[in-house]
């Protein structure tokens, strides 16, 4: 029996309303013994905490996503801080910068990002970072804060799509890279190259469900059980067994999120 962790999904998304419990059960049946559902707004963070409270295998991250940062203010920050007190909240996220969509002005994104980075440091929690067409800005915000903390794991660059030198800078600050469905896509040869070369203690796996469904299920709704397809592809690229990849990536997630080695076997 292998143990996998889906370190990044959005179980609160409406497309799971009809069968959320089934989705969690299928994940557990596929060996995905822990799932982190990640908030993108105050409301979605609240829902993530509720799901973590209700389902044994589910943990939560709380935070306001750059594309939702338009109305971010002091009240949002206090609410995220309060939600982070729940014992199953393992990280602050997803937070970051998005220069690709820019549905929110860059300056507003930056204010929300920096305030939540400071909150995470204050609470001693890891961060889950969204960076789209913004890796240099993200890395300088991280470098201003994390240099002196690099002895421990500090967070995840979720859906990492940067080059090896950006990854190297992230590793030096104690960050891990989150690898998901795109590693199976035809056009992702540069990501596969990175996955072959990266130190395996710096790689964790994720689905970003319901988005970014891995091959061969692309085109359908993604769900946490499919994180196994990501682990299988990494195994293939690194000429390793899926068991080895599962063991190392699960250990990386446990180290980051402060889990002890026992697994939650509670079924939903
Ligand atoms: Zn996400």
Question: In words, what does this structure look like?
Answer:
It is a single chain. The protein is of the alpha/beta class. It has helices at residues 20-29, 42-54, 74-83, 106-123, 135-146, 164-172, 189-197, 227-238, 242-257, and strands spanning 4-9, 32-38, 58-62, 89-98, 127-132, 155-157, 175-179, 203-205. Strands 1-2-3-4-5-6-7-8 form an eight-stranded parallel sheet. The chain is globular. The two termini are 19 Å apart. The mean pLDDT is 94. The structure holds zinc ion. Residues 8, 10, 38, 94, 208 line the site of zinc ion. Zinc ion (ZN) binds at residues 8, 10, 38, 94, 208.
Question: In terms of topology, how is this protein built?
Answer:
Elements: E1 4-9, H1 20-29, E2 32-38, H2 42-54, E3 58-62, H3 74-83, E4 89-98, H4 106-123, E5 127-132, H5 135-146, E6 155-157, H6 164-172, E7 175-179, H7 189-197, E8 203-205, H8 227-238, H9 242-257
Parallel strand pairs: 1-2, 2-3, 3-4, 4-5, 5-6, 6-7, 7-8
Helix pairs in contact: 2-3, 8-9
Name some characteristics of this structure:
268 residues; alpha/beta; 17% strand; binds zinc ion
Helix content: 40-55%
Q: Give me the Rg, rounded.
A: 17 Å
Summarize the helix and strand pattern as letters.
EHEHEHEHEHEHEHEHH
Largest sheet: 8 strands, parallel
CA-based shape? globular
- Read across the widest sheet, the strand sequence of neighbours is 1-2-3-4-5-6-7-8
How many individual helices? 9
Small molecules held by this entry: zinc ion
**Fraction of residues in β-strands:** 15-25%
Instruction: Return the average pLDDT rounded to an integer.
Output: 94
The poorly predicted ranges are none
Extended strand count: 8
Distance linking N and C termini: 19 Å
Q: What structural class is derived from the secondary structure elements? A: alpha/beta
